[in-house]
């Protein structure tokens, strides 16, 4: 079996993909990339037997991981010979996890995504609006973006204000007072970094280095650290979809097979057991794209299913429990697994 390799399926402008790219760079983990289009279809992903439509997708060996909230912890467990980025004390871990929840579940990124500049070239492509409608599960238009922009700006201001007046207020360089950026910095900075870098997204009279000097200095420091890390590591190798799939199919498993928690309330309610056919999908965006496979393992943090690639090879798809729905699947004709 070939040695395990890290492959990141992403496209450069994806804000979520940046989280993974930054982590890999700052940690110094070698990886290959399979660059994807910013809209569906993505035949390279379908080649893996994966229906999940969100980016990024991470593979480590023969295991495939959805959602950066699972991908980053999995990477943190990998390459023990390299210094980790994660928190070490209970208090620091709490800050790290709360920042993740604040930016993702608390809606900071969701509001930032409503501030896309209205003159972006992609808005001239009608396919983009159709794709975003499928992604969000509701109609998407320029008119709608114009209407929700004022409210989104108010929400984003709360995010900038929070960091300016609390975690950065004492002049620290990094969130956990570390010597270098940590995972907590990634969890906190990514959405603000993204939206502040979109020309025309934020009005200069309301958002600027003069208005939020500590936040903008933090963003600048972080970008400099990432740029330096990327220079040290060199560019990742780019693989075609077929090349990436071949590497994955020939690899060994990244993780040992685990068990299904038989006492989990969902397992009990759905009558699940190891080997049951199940369907999983996100609960927010991209939920119309279900992945169906055999249940391999399930615990409080993660669900793993076995799926087949287009070549009939077995791979395992991992998803976090948080933000994903799992149901028993008895076949579409029976109306089962209504996610």
Question: What structural class do the secondary elements suggest?
Answer: alpha/beta
If strands are numbered along the chain, what order do they take across the biggest sheet?
Answer: 5-2-1-3-4-9-8-7-6-10
The shape, in one word, is globular
Compute the separation of the termini in Å: 37 Å
Helix content: 25-40%
How do the helices and strands follow one another from N- to C-terminus?
EHEHEEHHHHHHHEHHEEEEE
Multimerization state: single chain
Protein name: GST C-terminal domain-containing protein
Pfam families: DUF7962, GST_N_3
Domain GST C-terminal: 89-248
What does this structure look like?
The chain is 40% helix and 15% strand. α1 runs parallel beside α3 (68-77) and α1 packs across α8. The chain is globular, with a radius of gyration of 20 Å. Mean pLDDT is 94; it is low at 333-337. The protein contains 11 helices and 10 strands.
SSE layout and pairings?
Blueprint: E1 6-10, H1 15-27, E2 32-35, H2 43-46, E3 57-60, E4 63-66, H3 68-77, H4 90-105, H5 108-112, H6 126-136, H7 142-165, H8 183-196, H9 213-233, E5 237-238, H10 241-250, H11 265-270, E6 277-282, E7 291-298, E8 302-308, E9 314-320, E10 324-328
Parallel strand pairs: 1-2, 2-5, 4-9
Antiparallel strand pairs: 1-3, 3-4, 6-7, 6-10, 7-8, 8-9
Helix pairs in contact: 1-3, 1-8, 1-9, 4-8
Protein name: GST C-terminal domain-containing protein
Domain GST C-terminal: 89-248
Pfam family, one: GST_N_3
């Amino acid at each position: 079996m070939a040695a395990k390799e890290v492959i990141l399926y992403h496209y450069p402008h994806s804000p979520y993909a940046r989280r993974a790219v930054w982590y890999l760079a700052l940690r110094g983990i070698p990886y290959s990339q399979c660059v994807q289009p910013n809209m569906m279809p993505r035949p390279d992903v379908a080649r893996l037997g994966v229906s999940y439509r969100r980016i990024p997708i991470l593979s480590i060996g023969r295991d495939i991981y959805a959602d950066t909230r699972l991908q980053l912890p999995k990477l943190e467990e990998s390459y023990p010979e390299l210094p980790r980025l994660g928190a070490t004390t209970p208090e620091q871990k709490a800050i790290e996890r709360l920042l993740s929840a604040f930016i993702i579940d608390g809606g900071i990124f969701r509001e930032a995504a409503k501030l896309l500049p209205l003159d972006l070239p992609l808005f001239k492509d009608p396919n983009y609006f159709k794709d975003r409608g499928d992604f969000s599960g509701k109609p998407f238009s320029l008119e709608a973006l114009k209407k929700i922009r004022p409210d989104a700006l108010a929400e984003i201001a709360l995010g900038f204000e929070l960091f300016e007046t609390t975690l950065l207020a004492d002049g620290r360089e990094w969130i956990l007072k570390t010597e270098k950026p940590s995972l907590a910095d990634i969890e906190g900075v990514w959405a603000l970094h993204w939206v502040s870098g979109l020309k025309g997204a934020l009005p200069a009279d309301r958002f600027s280095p003069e208005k939020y000097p500590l936040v903008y200095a933090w963003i600048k420091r972080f970008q400099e650290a990432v740029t330096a890390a990327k220079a040290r590591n060199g560019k990742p190798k780019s693989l075609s979809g077929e090349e990436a799939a071949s590497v994955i199919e020939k690899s060994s498993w990244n993780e040992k097979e685990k068990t299904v928690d038989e006492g989990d309330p969902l397992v009990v309610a759905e009558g699940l057991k190891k080997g049951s056919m199940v369907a999983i999908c996100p609960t927010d965006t991209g939920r119309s794209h279900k992945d169906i496979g055999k249940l391999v393992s399930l615990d409080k943090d993660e669900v793993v299913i076995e799926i087949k690639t287009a070549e009939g090879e077995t791979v395992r798809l991992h998803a976090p429990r948080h933000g994903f729905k799992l149901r028993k699947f008895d076949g579409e004709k029976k109306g089962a697994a209504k996610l």
